[in-house]
């Protein structure tokens, strides 16, 4: 299972020192190890469930949630005062096979790849 560590903080800063920003809780999630979960798609689905749980927990607590990734902070970034999630340890890439595509897909699967990295998680998070 994906592993999330939580840190109670009053503020946080970016790699490029754009802060500090006020904060209550910082999450850091790592993918399950390749030896325990060898298939990349299984690790991707596993960590997606973990992130959905964190978002649900934040929503139930009435708090906001915002993700940030690996070294994307050279300019102004979005932040949230409640909960932030560092996802730089979740980078993953894999080719997409024909069996992974919808039957009506018209794209050549050999030209499709999945790249899960820092900012991609924002798609799961919705609004800031």
What does this structure look like?
- This protein has 128 residues and is of the alpha/beta class.
- The protein has one domain (3-125).
- 20% of the residues lie in helices and 25% in strands.
- It is built from 2 helices and 8 strands, in the order ββββαββββα.
- It has helices at 40-60, 122-125, and strands at residues 3-8, 11-12, 21-22, 25-30, 65-68, 83-86, 92-95, 113-116.
- The strands form 3 sheets. The protein has a 4-stranded mixed beta sheet with strand order 1-4-6-5, covered by helices on one side. A two-stranded antiparallel ribbon has the order 2-3. A two-stranded antiparallel sheet has the order 7-8.
- β2 and β3 form a beta hairpin.
- The two termini are 26 Å apart.
- 17% of the residues are buried.
- The model is unreliable at 118-128 (pLDDT under 50).
